[in-house]
Amino acid sequence: MIKMKFSDIKGHDDVKRRLRDMADSDRIPHALLLEGEVGIGKLQMALTFAQYVHCEHRVGGEPCGKCPSCLQHQSNNHPDLFYVFPIFKKASETVFCDEYITEWNEFLAHSRYHSFEDWLGFLNPGTKQPVIYNSEGSQIIHKISVKSYSSRYKIMIMWLPEKMKEECANRLLKMIEEPYENTVLLFVSNKPNEILPTIYSRIQRVGMKRLSDSLVAECLTQSLAVDSQTAMSFAALSEGSVTKAMGLMDSAADNAMFLDMFKQLTRMAYLRDVRVLDISLRTYHSSDIWIPRSLHSCLLLLLHWLCRSSHRFRSRYS
User: Fold this and answer.
1) Which 3 state secondary structure label does DSSP give 45?
2) How far is it, in rounded angstroms, from Cα 91 to Cα 93?
3) What CA–CA distances, in Å, run from 173 to 23, 279, 288?
4) Which of 9, 27, 66, 110 has the most CB atoms within 10 Å of its CB?
5) Residue 13, Cβ neighbours under 10 Å: how many?
6) Which position has the higher pLDDT, 260 or 182?
7) DSSP 187
8) How many angstroms separate the CA atoms of 5 and 232, rounded?
9) Nearest-CA neighbor of 99 among 117, 78, 123, 116?
10) Is 30 helix (H, G, I), strand (E, B) or coil?
11) Could you read off the pLDDT of 90-144 as tens digits, one per residue?
């Protein structure tokens, strides 16, 4: 279950107030863009806004979380909400976003803060670059044109419209210029400058600013169970992005592991503990462990030094 409330989203009080006012006054633009840096909660804001629009009994500026519409949103199967996002072709056949809805639901449930790099981890596209294909345009038109099922508004959330192919973008442009009744096209972009200019100029835009360091640190302490001092250290380097802060923490953990590995190997080399060093190097050499280029170079230097006194090392690694 994906529980969504505005109060669960860190910061952005002005954006929350603006979106609430749109829904409460029944003046929702047919094309709306949430734009800003990666990892600040834009997609979560879009999801919560969609639930708020569909909610049958709003309470204190929040979705009630109990009505049929809210329950459908929380299980991510509301009939009047659909998604468009970057995907890749496994072969040469036509492919649509609906075919990746399982991965998408897992991606949404994984974190409140989302990045394209994280999405790649769920897609596993290999060397292919995920995009929103031209063929998706016909799917969007079909879904939008059908009468809403249980709510007044039919909502499409498009994540990363900057990844959209030109033909698909042109089809969408026609829908923006001649919108269907009671439809909302809700775009979420990390790089709005890469959106087709004719689309960007025709949609209402809501900018979301970077989070404060204290809010990023709060997210880190809650989601990763790190101490406040460590969280603030990484938050200060994150440029207001939770996903960047988490990436920095992951890199630091990897660097610490590799540094410890290098220290152990250096100690073995200094003591000329050939047997243990042999076993260790063979383990790293045969495993799937990714080793940074700088550490790999240092290991080669160790091997070169030891090869002078050990024919066994020379024959195996040189």
Assistant:
1) helix
2) 6
3) 24, 62, 46
4) 9
5) 9
6) 182
7) E
8) 25
9) 123
10) coil
11) 776 788 999 999 999 999 998 888 899 999 989 988 888 999 999 999 999 999 9
